[in-house]
UniProtKB/TrEMBL annotation:
It is a multi-pass membrane protein. GO terms for biological process: methylation. The keyword Cell inner membrane does not apply. Keywords: Membrane, Methyltransferase, Transferase, Transmembrane, Transmembrane helix. Gene3D superfamilies: 1.20.120.1630. GO terms for molecular function: methyltransferase activity. It is found in: Endomembrane system. This is Protein-S-isoprenylcysteine O-methyltransferase Ste14.
Amino acid sequence: MNTAYTWLTVLVVVTGIGCCVAGVVSFRLAKTTVDPVHPDRASTLVVVGIYHLTRNPMYLGFVLIQAAWAVYFPSLGACGAVWVLAMYLNRVQIPLEEAALQTRFGESYQRYMQSVPRWL
């Protein structure tokens, strides 16, 4: 493996992990749930920290980590896995969460969605 690809892989993995950790820390500081299965249980709309840059830092982190795998082990299957994960999150998981948060936080969440991008 080329050293440049190794360093790129490390950079992408570290960035992905950083996004995930920053998202979890922001939720913990706000004392709200991180559980993606029950976004309706959120007690606080978190809009600070990394959530000021992206509405889905943990999912962004997951996609970056998967992308790092595709950089390190380049193949059509690895690239396809990144695409499948991103599409699932974008078309299934995130819309479900957004609907629950819209119901829970109403106009505040609508303004947040208009001011902060889903990914980056």
